[in-house]
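Table S2 (continued). Query chain:
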Amino acid sequence: MVSHRAGVASAPAPPPQGELARLLEAEARLEQELARARADAAARVAQATTDAQSRIAALDAEVAAAGTTLRGQLDAERTAREAEIAAMGAREAERFERVTADRIAALARELATMLLGGMEGGR
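Corresponding output:
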């Protein structure tokens, strides 16, 4: 409490010696607890960072493996499709080659007759 005598303020009375010692001990305890809490928090953050980096590395490896697998599958599918197309082309070429010259000549005559007949009928 501050008292006023003749307009001059006096400072509050200091706490008794025992109380001051208890306050200093409490402050020292709190500082130690705070230091332990900060150290614990730093250790937890460091562990979380390490765990996160490990998980990221594992995920990167999974993505790389999946990419390799996918590329292999796509290559196999492309190769299979190329083989199918080549086989289809070979079958069509073989079918075309089986058409005889006599058959081609007969078809040409038939076509010419149709075209010329159409022309005569149109006059």
